[in-house]
Amino acid sequence: MQVKPSPKPSVVEVKAILERPKLAVRRMNWIDKNRGRNATPWQTWRTALEHEDDEALGLILIAQWRGNLGPVLPKWNCGIFLFEHRIYALDYEPDLPHTNTTGAGRPLHTRRLDPPNVHEHTWSQDG
What pTM did the predictor assign? Predict the structure, then answer.
């Protein structure tokens, strides 16, 4: 059975979601994302989020962190997702460039950010 993707929320809907206070459902507990595979050692924490006055179905916080790997610098990201849609995030890219592929009409759309960079992802109508 194939799962249908959820519809993209509007900018107004995302703004309303982000403005409301939220509570993490799970205590912070870093988990080895690679589960023993021979790969870059990412640690991840995932939790559902609830609004203070009701359950917010489909709202998830995902934080990820990778420590030093010899000459490769640590990096991290943290995002809020509404089902599969990343509606807000902060990313730290110490040694890789980043290009914004969504956000048509915004000042940084298609512009390359050279490392090191901390950048914010905000929701736009194209994702």
Answer: 0.84
